[in-house]
Amino acid sequence: GAVVSQHPSRVICKSGTSVKIECRSLDFQATTMFWYRQFPKKSLMLMATSNEGSKATYEQGVEKDKFLINHASLTLSTLTVTSAHPEDSSFYICSASLSQGDFTDTQYFGPGTRLTVL
Amino acid sequence: AQTVTQSQPEMSVQEAETVTLSCTYDTSESDYYLFWYKQPPSRQMILVIRQEAYKQQNATENRFSVNFQKAAKSFSLKISDSQLGDAAMYFCAYRWYRDDKIIFGKGTRLHILP
């Protein structure tokens, strides 16, 4: 089946630093990748949608200058949390869409990255 | 705007018994997909079952089945012969067929009692 990986699985950083999270589709090409944020005991909140080679589309309320998304290839998307602060601490999950070109594609989720900002 | 509502924050079921998780949704669209995702303690989201709105037949996957009532906008998940490994957070989700975005409910935490 389709496998999506994320790296790192866990990261702790100091306030003010930037953190990069990678999302890779291991055995398929993903034209679209998604980034979600999940607070403790809460649902997934879509942050942005990224398509290979184009700018990401951010959901309302998500700061695009703070959460930089790059989808450089069909198998890799990165989320960079710039100048991280304690309120950015959260669980970040990516998903990749196995596109069949007719909107029947399924999203496959990565295992998530826990970010803790001290 | 589309919304997904899961009215049961937590549920418990005895091992080997059957449990039904509720989900309702609101949409003005006629073509869409509905999903149940499982998130175990590992936090990995796993697709449990998927239903296309145009299909009248309820989807089934082994011990998991749904009761899809399109007119009532209801999409419940039945887990038969519950196992300890079924303990997880279950999310009901909706996607319009011409959109990539998935809208998740708030989840139901399922406990399996040995």
Account of the protein in words:
The complex is a heterodimer of chains A (118) and B (114). Helices cover 0% and strands 53% of the residues of chain A. Chain A is mostly beta strands and 118 residues long. Chain A is globular, with a radius of gyration of 14 Å. By secondary structure, chain B is mostly beta strands. Chain B is 0% helix and 53% strand. Chain B is built from no helices and twelve strands. In chain B, the strands form three sheets. In chain B, strands 2, 5, 6, 10, 11 and 12 form a six-stranded mixed sheet that branches. In chain B, strands 3-9-8-7 form a four-stranded antiparallel sheet, with no helix packed on it. In chain B, strands 1-4 form a two-stranded antiparallel ribbon. The model of chain B has no long low-confidence stretch (mean pLDDT 95). Classes of the chains: A mainly beta (118), B mainly beta (114). The interface between A and B is medium-sized, with 21 and 19 residues.
Short description:
The complex is a heterodimer of chains A (118) and B (114). Chain A is mainly beta and 118 residues long.
Mean pLDDT of chain B: 95
Per DSSP, what share of the residues of chain B sits in E-state strands of 2 or more residues? Answer: over 45%
Give the number of helices of chain A.
0
Class by SSE composition of chain B = mainly beta
Spatial shape of chain A: globular
Approximate strand percentage of chain A: over 45%
List the uncertain runs of chain B: none
Count of helical segments of chain B?
0
Biggest sheet layout of chain A: 7 strands, mixed
C-alpha Rg of chain A (nearest Å) = 14 Å
The radius of gyration of chain B is 14 Å
Note the gap between the termini of chain A.
37 Å
Count of DSSP E strands of chain A?
Answer: 11
